């Protein structure tokens, strides 16, 4: 058995490790942009190989997979899927875990995803407008004073989203100015060079509430959800600072987070299932691989979709893959053969915490964060009960590991409770440093009692309101007050 992995982040390190635990004893092959030391050591240990190159180039991936004679390919990140890697592999007769280009549009185009949810009447949708011309977006902004999220219409790697509350009438003109400026920046900077979708700017109703990720495997028919995970995006403690790719994440025992109920988990799964079915109806292709809902518990709907991933989240993958009890290769084969309903997806009943460690400079000045030699005492981390997953790092020919500019490692730990797992992860932090003395940072509050308490309180507030709205038949509807016209209810 030979498996090839595409990708080079901590998420792919966790996928690689889960693949290598399989009773089929696969040889691991990898195609990466940077040389992830964790993935390389798994390739070597299992007798496989790795190549580096442009992982978004379908011919590079197909040629590598053919050269290694692999049984199937697992694609970790989204951009290769957006570039049609799955399509090219399947045409060459090589099965792929990862959506074809058309269904991957669920993540690639936030405008496509919103239209899909409206067309199919799927709960958890938000009111939105998508614009091709910046002038039209500006005209809309001038006319409607609303609290909105302004986004690039395409997934552009986690940049360019601005959420603007427009609640005070006396500030409305200034807020409109900010929105207009940002619409221009989205069109001219964030969407620059992307010609694979027509929409450019998305203006979306602003909602509030705790966020969480529901990751799942699907063969197009069955959707098998993983335990819920919450990522923490802000760079600094207590949710301040710039947004990052994710500074760390938590998952509770069983399938739930302490602030999400079983009913909300089930409803979230139903939403993801409905979208997988709708994607096939719309594109004619079965969605095969990983699908994740980046969700928010909101007063409007309860579980609500913020965006979709056609992959695991990172760091979210690192919470759930190390505790996967089922055989990863068997699961992949069940996806390929469309019999995922026949295989159990089981996890250890344990809480997990992941903490990202980043070089100073990240995320605003990646140029400063890049090129520092990494020192990791993996044995010491193990002794403290943690595990190291390599993230943005590049192994050099002389054995030095250099930072790539983003989070350099993610530390995983498990425990009877989230705070216990958090304390274990925390104890591992001193064993990761940079040899040239350049500083690193991480978030000590991730997994702490205090942050958990805050999330639980936030969820309780939102839950009270959406339950009230359910009782009143107002779920999904927006109530607005317009001077001279009184209260109006906008239908969802
Ligand atoms: N409609 C909305 N209302 C309120 N907040 C929102 C809304 N849409 C997005 N956000 C906030 O902005 C963040 C980023 O938005 P989104 O996930 O759509 O974009 P992204 O930049 O592609 O994300 P990522 O960083 O996850 O790749 C969300 O995690 C959420 O906190
Ligand atoms: Mg997001």
State the gist of this model.
The chain has about 500 residues and is an alpha+beta fold. The protein contains 16 helices and 27 strands.
Low-confidence stretches: none
Strand residue percentage:
25-35%
Small molecules in complex: adenosine-5'-triphosphate, magnesium ion
Q: In total, how many beta strands?
A: 27
Termini gap:
49 Å
Largest sheet: 6 strands, antiparallel
- Output the structural class: alpha+beta
At CATH level 2, the architecture of the largest domain is 2-Layer Sandwich
What gyration radius follows from the Cα positions, in whole Å? Answer: 22 Å
The count of domains is: 3
The CATH superfamily label of the largest domain reads ATP-grasp fold, B domain
Structure description:
The protein is an alpha+beta fold. It has 16 helices and 27 strands. Strands 12, 15, 18, 20, 23 and 25 form a six-stranded antiparallel sheet that branches. A five-stranded parallel sheet has the order 3-2-1-4-5, sandwiched between helices. Strand 1 (2-6), helix 1 (10-20) and strand 2 (27-32) form a beta-alpha-beta unit. It is globular and about 75 Å long. The mean pLDDT is 96. The structure holds adenosine-5'-triphosphate and magnesium ion. Adenosine-5'-triphosphate binds at residues 126, 149, 151, 155, 158, 161, 163, 204-207, 211, 233, 243, 294, 306-307.
């Amino acid at each position: 058995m030979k498996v090839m992995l595409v990708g080079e982040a901590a998420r792919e390190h966790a996928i690689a490790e889960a693949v290598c635990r399989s009773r089929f004893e696969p040889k691991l092959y990898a195609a990466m942009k940077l040389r992830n030391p964790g993935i390389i050591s798994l390739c070597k240990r299992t007798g496989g190989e790795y190549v580096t190159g442009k992982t978004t180039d379908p011919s590079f991936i197909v040629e590598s997979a053919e050269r290694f004679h692999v049984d199937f390919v697992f694609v970790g990140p989204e951009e290769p899927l957006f570039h049609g890697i799955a399509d090219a592999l399947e045409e060459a007769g090589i099965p792929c875990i990862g959506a074809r280009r058309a269904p991957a549009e669920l993540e690639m185009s936030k405008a496509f995803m919103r239209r899909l949810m409206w067309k199919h009447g799927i709960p958890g949708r938000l009111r939105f407008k998508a614009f091709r011309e910046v002038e039209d977006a500006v005209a809309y902004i001038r006319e409607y004073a609303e609290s909105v999220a302004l986004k690039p219409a395409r997934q552009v790697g986690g940049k360019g989203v601005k959420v603007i509350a427009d609640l005070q009438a006396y500030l409305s003109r200034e807020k409109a100015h900010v929105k207009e400026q940002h619409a221009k920046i989205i069109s001219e900077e964030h969407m620059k060079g992307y010609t694979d979708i027509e929409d450019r700017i998305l203006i979306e109703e602003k909602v509030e509430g705790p966020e969480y990720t529901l990751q799942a495997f699907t063969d197009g028919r069955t959707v098998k959800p993983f335990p819920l995970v919450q990522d923490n995006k802000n760079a600094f403690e207590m949710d301040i600072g710039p947004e990052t790719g994710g500074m760390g994440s938590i998952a509770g025992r069983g399938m739930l987070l302490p602030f999400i109920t079983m009913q909300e988990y089930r409803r979230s799964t139903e939403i993801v299932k409905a979208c997988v079915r709708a994607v096939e109806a719309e594109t004619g292709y079965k969605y095969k691989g990983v699908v994740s809902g980046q969700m928010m518990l909101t007063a409007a709907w309860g579980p609500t979709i913020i965006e979709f991933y056609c992959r695991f989240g990172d760091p979210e993958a690192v919470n759930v893959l190390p505790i996967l009890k089922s055989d990863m290769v068997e699961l992949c084969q069940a996806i390929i053969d469309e019999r995922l309903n026949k295989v159990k997806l089981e996890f250890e009943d344990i809480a997990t915490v992941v903490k990202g460690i980043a070089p100073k400079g990240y995320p605003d000045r990646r140029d400063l964060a890049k090129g520092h030699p990494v020192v990791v005492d993996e044995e010491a981390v193990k002794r403290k009960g943690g595990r190291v997953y390599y993230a943005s790092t590049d192994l050099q020919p002389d054995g030095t590991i250099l930072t790539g500019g983003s989070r350099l490692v993610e530390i995983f730990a498990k425990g009877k409770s989230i705070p216990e797992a958090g304390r274990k992860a925390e104890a591992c932090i001193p064993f990761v440093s940079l040899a040239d003395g350049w500083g690193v940072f991480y978030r000590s509050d991730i997994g702490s009692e205090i942050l958990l308490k805050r999330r639980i309180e936030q969820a309780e507030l939102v839950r009270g309101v959406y339950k009230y709205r359910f009782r009143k038949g107002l779920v999904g509807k927006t109530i607005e007050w317009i001077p001279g016209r009184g209260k109006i209810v906008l239908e969802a």
